[in-house]
Specification:
heterodimer; A: 880 residues; alpha/beta; Ubiquitin-like (UB roll); Alpha-Beta Plaits; Rossmann fold; 5 domains; 26% helix; globular; B: 182 residues; alpha+beta; three-stranded antiparallel β-sheet; elongated
């Protein structure tokens, strides 16, 4: 580790550290504009100029020359150097506080301000603006320029529906351009022209159409890029930032809710190096309006003669108790069923299942409606979930990441950033899916298998692991039987899966030989798992025989759809499994059968009526939701729930990290938190429950769910400061150093629960062979159902600002198929699905190289494409 | 005795002088006492000579206010409805006069000279709610009746000069001339 002297203090920093980073442990901050710790340094703004010198070496001995006092003689460089591009070297000396440095900073600031409008009072960045701060700390104090002689440029330029550009304020640091190309991988911004005319332009149509565009607002060091959602709604110093967790996908990105006047003004990322670093997607940032929408339910409603009329909580709860008690008396709980969406918190879900199992004596409960119907592979997660401490963004070349049947770009957008970051650091990223996804561009190896042949594909990899003698049998039972039963050859599997045998062998070898291995499986593979049990068996065999489980940086990660899909399983909102994922004695009705056999249905935060057109009120229907959904319109009792911003609780993200979110707003009128309503219903039914807060519920969860032991709110709230690799001389630095600039967002929090292979180090697991399902050959192309990040979901409709970003539905067709069917890009196409009854869609065709021959891809969450069945066969006709 | 008499005369002289001098009390409220020019009374929101509001809704007054008496809700100007020069105006501006301590910090913080503590000191109310004065009450009348806001912009598309170019009289310096004179 080179030793550097900064303003007379010495410090040891790792080789390769930049001067701007090396000074941070000493509390010396060098002001910067273009440098950002997450981006490659470019040295454009010259704000970080410092005096740098290297020790004078004796030409003969190559030893430092010492002066009379015994100190090394420093050769100061004749001109100042940029701290953000200078890498430390042994014996380097840096001076950051000399008059020359101060003068350089003053000059740079004066230069930048010649074309900066100084309209800070009306600028949305004002108050958290590095240019303001640096001008105050290092600037000239007064101007030598008459304000009117300043350079003027365009002011209100809508760069995209979400972002406003002010060309006058831009200081041309290129952070936004570099973020889009280096991190987001969507290089849609660029510089045009040069000199005074240099300006930011978008090279995209529709303009700046990136899922990550909002992050450029945060990293812009001036007010050039501002949010059009937050525009002129408040000053940043008037906001109260409440730590929270995003509700839009299962990634569990940490956010701040910036609240004022009991309203969400903006969402900003909260730094958590283990989850989202400092990034969030545009969905997370801009789709929060539903929480404060005027359409929200504000009071309980009960059905009186065909109409829903507002009543008090007392009336509503009594009404429920009076109707439920006789049903309980008649058939016990057998005819009472419950459906809870996987968007509500762990506390709500726990009390929901407790209400059913303890109070109503019923196992008829489920969380799988809509997309969550596809949740599969929970057993794999329970036993082989990626080890505690796994950080996808920090994986390097000793790790192989196998991503199967997933599209993180559209489903877990920030995870995509972290996977591409890991690939950039040298991790061996292998992406396999039935089509080409955005992530494939970062993969060391990208495979496209045939949809429906996932089991062959996986058994082929297992076979090649076995053939290469790379199979590990530690903690594995039945390995020999498996090898015997696995009669499929790699070549046969490869042929069925539509890939080459050599590729399968290479993947198997790379995965088994790698020191660490992680398997991520997504929605498309989960569909295959439900369709064919052999897929899960093969995946389990692959994980076990490669030995990649039960320790850090090893194991599986299931990419589930919603923010608390993981918690819903942990809490036991399933007909056959209770809290802690323990199988129950009785198996109740699942979501599919509830409509037919139940008499009383209690629906929390779910809308089965939009998924199933045949949905009807089974006799007595209780709906608890934010809005008067289609299901709620059929209900006998509608209960107004508080949104996630109006209460506290915990969500468990797709990496099994339990994270606490705080309350930011007071609930709308009579709305109550879900757990509160469930408790009140139980109390009205005679239960003796004593929960006064969400943390009371969590305290009970820590005792009844073994995985959640020691996860009281107080512990989850504790934020741990991450240690930086930069340390001072003589051991650890007294104060850990965060790698960030003036824009610190927060710190790491949340706790992962351990998989069973990790808690019990001696547990053995059985592998079994399962024969893949024989595919029935079909002439028509396969319909692959994809998802779009910005969708026509039930919550996004309340955010007007993102509506232009919701794409129109298209059907993606392979160019060879298109040629054969005589379809050109943009033609309208009629699809007839082989469902019963046949469903007909008419969509514009998008001919590109993303889908293989024989596959059509349609996003099933856009206008006119809701609830498409994956794997259907579709007849394609051109519409004239 | 003479001593007592002289004291009496002295006293009566004072009385007589005061009887003949004009009274210092006023017949308030019929007659109002003029206040010193820098007296800090009730606030007013000023207008530019062209009738546009000086207030740009920047909330710096609210940030400076030690009593947290000011609430500002900003919004964006459009060409069809222009309130103030520049991009931003105050959609809502409220001062709670029960909280206000008339320190004048808001005046000092204002970058456009929009808020001024004027000479109105008759600040009594029958209820607390009416002590919260709104933007309509604060805003002065436009110089001409056709200069009220909002109005269509005379210069569509021009969103510059939210902050007046010179505040406090910083004169332009001609650097070229300065260099020549040296």
């Amino acid at each position: 580790m080179p030793q550097v002297t900064i303003d007379g203090q010495t410090i040891n920093v790792p080789a390769g550290t930049l001067v701007v980073e090396a000074t941070k442990p000493l509390g010396t901050h060098i002001p910067v504009f273009c440098y950002h710790p997450k981006l490659q340094p470019v040295g454009m703004c010259r704000m970080c100029l410092v005096e740098v010198g290297t020790p004078k070496l004796d030409p003969a001995t190559r030893q430092p020359v010492l002066d009379e006092q015994g100190n090394a003689v420093i050769n100061w460089m004749p001109k100042m150097q940029t701290g953000c591009t200078t890498v430390v070297s042994e014996g380097m000396a840096v001076r950051t506080k000399t008059p020359a440095v101060a003068e350089a900073r003053r000059s740079i600031l004066e230069f930048l301000l010649t074309s900066h409008p100084l309209d800070c009072p009306i600028c949305d960045k004002g108050g958290e603006c590095p240019l303001q701060d640096h001008t105050l700390n290092y600037g000239p104090g007064n101007s030598r320029f008459y304000v009117q002689s300043k350079f003027h440029n365009e002011k209100v330029v809508p760069l995209s529906p979400l972002i406003m550009l002010d060309r006058e304020r831009c200081i041309q640091c290129a952070r936004c351009i570099r973020f889009q190309s280096e991190i987001a991988g969507e290089p849609v911004l660029g510089f045009a022209d040069r000199g005074r005319g240099l300006e930011i332009v978008t090279l995209d149509e529709p303009p700046f159409n990136s899922n990550y565009s909002g992050n450029t607002i945060d990293i812009c060091p001036v007010g050039a890029l501002t949010s059009r959602d937050f525009r002129f709604t408040a000053r940043v110093f008037e906001l109260n930032d409440h730590p929270s967790v995003c509700q839009q996908c299962s990634g569990g990105c940490n956010i701040y809710i910036g609240a004022r006047d009991n309203d969400i003004k903006r969402i900003t990322p909260r730094q958590n190096e283990a989850v989202n670093e400092i990034w969030i997607s545009d969905k997370c940032r801009f789709v929060h309006h539903y929480a404060t929408a005027p359409e929200r339910l504000t009071t309980p409603l009960i059905r009186a003669e065909s109409d829903l009329k507002p009543v008090s909580w007392y009336e509503a709860l009594n009404f429920i108790a009076n109707r439920v008690r006789p049903v309980l008396g008649e058939g016990g709980g057998k005819t009472i069923a419950g459906l809870a969406g996987d968007r509500v918190s762990n506390e709500d879900l726990y009390l929901f299942q407790k209400l059913f199992r303890d109070v109503l004596g019923s196992d008829n409960l489920d969380h799988r409606v809509g997309w969550s119907l596809w949740n599969a592979g929970q057993e794999l997660v329970k036993h082989f979930g990626a080890g505690i401490g796994t950080n996808l963004g920090e994986l390097t070349k000793n790790t192989t990441i196998l991503v199967l049947g997933a599209d993180p770009q559209n489903e877990q957008p920030v995870m995509r950033l972290r996977l591409s970051k890991a690939a950039g650091q040298g991790a061996n990223l292998i992406v396999a899916n039935g089509r080409v996804t955005k992530l494939a561009a970062y993969a060391k190896q990208s495979l496209v298998y045939k949809y429906g042949a996932e089991a062959y594909f996986l058994w082929g990899i297992v076979r090649s692991v076995v053939d290469a003698d790379a199979a590990k049998t530690k903690r594995v039972r039945g390995a020999d039987d498996l090898v015997q039963n696995l009669t499929l050859s790699v070549a046969a599997c490869a042929e069925k899966a539509g890939v080459s045998a050599a590729t399968l062998q290479a993947v198997g070898k790379a995965f088994a030989a790698s020191e660490n291995g992680i398997v991520l499986f997504g929605r498309e593979l989960m569909f295959a798992m439900q369709d064919d049990p052999a897929v899960q068996a093969a995946l389990e065999a692959l994980v076990l025989l490669s030995g990649h489980f039960g320790k850090q940086d090893n194991g599986v990660i299931g990419l589930y759809p919603h923010n608390n899909s993981m918690g819903a399983v942990d809490m036991g909102v399933l007909p056959d499994s209770g809290p802690g994922r323990e199988p129950t004695r009785n198996v109740g009705l699942s979501a599919r059968d509830m409509g037919l056999k139940a008499k009383v249905l209690y629906v929390v935060a779910a809308d089965p009526a939009t998924q199933d057109p045949k949905f009807r009120n089974p006799g007595f229907l209780i709906v608890q939701d934010l809005f008067l959904t289609e299901t709620a319109q059929k209900a006998d009792v509608v209960l107004p729930a508080a949104s996630w911003a109006e209460r506290d609780g915990t969500f468990t993200n797709t990496e099994r990290r339990v994270q606490y979110f705080a309350r930011a707003l007071t609930p709308k009128q009579n709305a109550r938190a879900d757990w509160e309503i469930i408790r009140d219903i139980a109390l009205h039914l005679g239960a003796q429950w004593k929960y006064d807060s969400a943390s009371d519920v969590m305290n009970e969860i820590t005792k009844t769910v073994p995985q959640y032991a020691k996860m009281e709110h107080a512990r989850l709230r504790v934020t741990a400061r991450r240690r930086s690799s930069v340390q001072t001389v003589g051991g650890d630095s007294p104060e850990p150093v965060l790698i960030a600039l003036g824009e610190l967002y927060g710190e790491t929090s949340g706790v992962q629960w351990p998989s069973s292979s990790e808690t019990n180090e001696d547990a053995e697991f059985e592998v079994q062979f399962a024969a893949p399902k024989e595919d029935t050959p079909a002439a028509d192309p396969y319909l692959a159902v994809t998802r779009s990040l910005m969708d026509r979901g039930s919550l996004i409709q309340y955010s007007e600002i993102v509506q232009p970003r919701i794409p129109a539905a298209v059907v993606e067709i392979n160019s060879h198929d298109a040629e054969e069917w005589n379809i050109a890009d943009g033609d309208r196409v009629k699809l007839t699905l082989d469902t019963k009854p046949p469903r007909v869609l008419e969509l514009p065709a998008h001919v590109d190289g993303q889908v293989p021959q024989g596959v059509l891809a349609v996003a099933n969450n856009l206008d006119g494409t809701m609830n498409l069945p994956m794997g259907a066969r579709a007849k394609v006709e051109k519409v004239n | 005795m003479f001593q007592g008499l002289s004291a009496l005369i002295k006293g009566m002289l004072t009385t007589g002088r005061e009887m003949l001098s004009p009274p210092v009390t006023y017949q308030y409220p019929e007659i109002k006492k003029p206040v010193p020019p820098r007296f800090r009374g009730r606030h007013e929101l000023k207008r530019h000579p062209d009738g546009l509001e000086k207030c740009i809704g920047c909330s710096l007054c609210a940030a400076a206010c030690p009593a947290d008496a000011i609430y500002v809700k900003p919004a964006a100007n459009t060409d069809a409805e222009r309130y103030s020069p520049g991009e931003r105006y105050a959609a809502s501006y409220e001062i709670n006069l029960l909280r206000c301590i008339f320190c004048g910090f808001c005046e000092e913080a204002c970058p456009t000279g929009a808020i001024v503590l004027e000479h109105d000191y008759e600040l009594a109310y029958y209820d607390r709610r009416s002590a919260i004065i709104t933007k309509e009450q604060l805003l002065v009348a436009p110089p001409e009746s056709d200069m009220s806001t909002p109005r269509a912009a005379a210069d569509p598309g021009n969103l510059y000069a939210a902050i007046p170019p010179v505040k406090g009289g910083i004169e332009p310096v001609n650097i070229v001339e300065m260099a020549k004179s040296k």
